[in-house]
Design goal:
Layout: E1 3-5, H1 13-27, E2 31-35, H2 40-48, E3 55-60, E4 66-68, H3 76-79, H4 81-92, E5 97-99, H5 104-112, E6 116-119, H6 126-135, H7 140-151, H8 153-167, E7 174-182, E8 184-194, E9 208-216
Parallel strand pairs: 1-9, 2-3, 2-7, 3-6
Antiparallel strand pairs: 4-5, 7-8, 8-9
Helix pairs in contact: 1-2, 7-8
């Protein structure tokens, strides 16, 4: 039976990992996908999964992405308590722009833990975000992205990170456990049938949702502007 959280956000990370570990032991799935901007969530998963014969892949953001601290008055950093704390800490330090990426310290930890890191374009985000912010209007990928967000922001993240890992050749097409979250941490987890982005809608071998492990009952859905991710 799936675990449902009252609210979305990083506060659900530990319980989400615990439920996923239980499911790995039950189903014997060998591949785990974790989206992680800084590497923190991937480290937590790898440490909790020690002793299990699994391959953990961390999918992270492409080069050049950053948070615009001055625009965090709306969106997830203004509406989710644990994210507010992160925003307020940035402001206390006088930061206006915070680059995204796995820290050097975390890269070393992930390597020691045997976690593969995939860094590349986010399938449903990069190009469509650029169209919205620079050209105006919506791209077809936005419709897919916002539909997945109806389940939870983390569900969208599960799909994107799994496609990234599969496209990179670090995860074979087949059953995986995929994590997702709302900006930071983990609050969603699915058993998925992974596919490359090329095979997403393939009738025989395409991407499928197989089993829900955990998610927030009501997820955060952002507006399409995502001002906290771009410069003024």
């Amino acid at each position: 039976m799936a675990l449902y959280f009252k609210n979305p956000g990083p506060e659900n990370t530990e319980k989400t990992i615990e439920e996923a570990r239980r499911k790995v032991k039950e189903l014997g799935i060998k591949y785990i996908v974790v989206p992680s901007i800084t590497g923190d969530s991937a480290i937590k998963v790898a440490e909790k999964f020690k002793g299990l014969n699994v391959n953990i892949v961390c999918a992270t953001v492409p080069q050049g992405m950053f948070w615009n601290v001055e625009s965090m008055n709306k969106g997830p950093y203004a509406e989710i308590s644990n994210l507010k704390k992160i925003r307020d800490e940035y402001r206390r330090k006088g930061l206006k722009k915070v680059m995204m990426g796995i820290t050097k310290k975390n890269k070393i930890k992930l390597n020691k833990l045997g976690v593969k890191v995939v860094k590349g374009s986010v399938p449903l985000f990069g190009v469509s975000f650029s169209i919205r912010t620079n050209l105006g209007g919506l791209a077809e990928l936005d419709l897919i992205s916002k539909t997945l967000e109806l389940f939870s922001t983390g569900t969208q993240s599960c799909v994107e990170s799994t496609m990234m890992a599969t496209d990179a050749g670090e995860v074979p097409e087949g059953e995986v456990i995929a994590f997702g979250g709302t900006e930071r941490g983990l609050d969603t987890c699915w058993v998925l049938r992974a596919s490359t982005s090329l095979n997403l809608f393939n009738q025989k071998n395409g991407f499928r949702f197989l089993e829900l492990i955990a998610k927030p009952r009501v997820s955060f859905t952002s507006d399409m502007s995502s001002d906290y991710l771009k410069e003024k």
